[in-house]
Specification:
By secondary structure, the protein is mainly α. It has one domain. The chain has 4 helices and no strands. α2 runs parallel beside α4. It is elongated, with a radius of gyration of 20 Å. It starts with 12 loop residues before the first helix and ends in a 10-residue tail after the last helix.
Length: 156
């Protein structure tokens, strides 16, 4: 008699929330710590949101091609590659939640600051980066879901 196999469950919303909250607190504290230690806060350039946009595009195309392959509409992929993509999707979802929270916390730390002429710029760019971090999280979840296979045969 064969033992029933343990199924890998999709990543939980609780784990994503936890990573997002950790990022939020870390991003909010970053400005205060950087100003007290180095006298100035980090500048958010357009490079950070553009890099996140590139990551979203790459992960999204990978999710789309994986979905097509597993659904049988494209070239089949080896099981090892499917597992690698599953792990990539889970990692991107967790890191995307952390990044989204971090940039959101950094953006929030600049609200109400009138003395710094770059405060509005830093808040806006951080908010855009937070939205793109959330997009990384969502495309990571899509990649993870794309790796699901149908259960053939009777259910126990």
């Amino acid at each position: 008699m064969t033992e029933p196999r343990e199924r890998l469950r999709p990543i939980s919303g609780g784990a994503l929330t936890l990573w997002g909250v950790v990022g939020l607190v870390g991003g909010w504290l970053l400005r205060r710590v950087a100003e007290s230690w180095w006298g100035t806060a980090p500048v958010v350039t357009w490079l950070q949101p553009l890099a996140l946009l590139l990551a979203v595009l790459i992960i999204g195309v990978t999710a789309w091609s994986t979905r097509r392959s597993i659904a049988g509409k494209g070239e089949r992929i080896a099981p090892l590659y499917a597992v690698n993509r599953l792990v990539l999707g889970r990692a991107c979802a967790l890191v995307g939640a952390l990044i989204a929270g971090g940039y959101a916390g950094y953006a929030l730390s600049w609200l109400g600051i009138d003395g710094d002429p770059l405060a509005g710029q830093r808040a806006l760019r951080s908010a855009i980066a937070a939205a793109l971090g959330l997009a990384v999280c969502v495309t990571g979840l899509l990649l993870e879901r794309a790796c699901r296979v149908r259960q053939d045969g009777p259910k126990p």
